[in-house]
């Protein structure tokens, strides 16, 4: 069986690469063209290749039996997912907050969050669920702390069920509904702080928790002189 993995996440690349080294399966790793800088060393070493999934759709169809999308920023074409079995590793609990940055929106809208491994279809984060698990979110969590726990859970589900995923020995569960979807535009609309917007302290803290994801600078307001001022929150639970 010929396998490929498309990822734009360095953490996931390292985990998957080490995992497949311990198996007899041969897999080719690809990243998006935008990942050239992130994966510069790996590309030079020949362990990962840059690939535009739309331009190389026929290549993937003709040469592979199974593909994994592990935090890939490219949308797989309809023709690809209809001709090659493709599985997505998604950092959200489908059908809640499908799309971009599920943990951010979960902290804001209080919908459940977790990890989902699902078959891919022509819609984003939409196919039949194969494996899924929810995590608990605490009042002291930030986007970063939730995301880190989701990553660990994703890999746990992937690693524990790898053989079943490859051979197709799993139960497929339809999503109960289409849930909600958040685009990158929805996220970008959250970034600028309206300094005159009336909110409760709970809403303000929840917003800053959702926007705090070091080393990235996300939430900002415009100072009187027009300069952007970034804001994050330092939040910590007291250990008793």
UniProtKB/TrEMBL annotation:
Residues 69-160 form the Formyl transferase N-terminal domain. Pfam families: Formyl_trans_N, N_formyltrans_C. Residues 186-237 form the N-formyltransferase dimerization C-terminal domain. GO terms for cellular component: cytosol. This is Methionyl-tRNA formyltransferase. InterPro entries: Formyl_transf_N, Formyl_transf_N_sf, N_formyltrans_C. It comes from Planctobacterium marinum. Signal peptide: none annotated. It comes from the Bacteria. The lineage of its organism: Bacteria, Pseudomonadati, Pseudomonadota, Gammaproteobacteria, Alteromonadales. One of its GO terms (molecular function) is methionyl-tRNA formyltransferase activity. Transmembrane segments: none annotated.
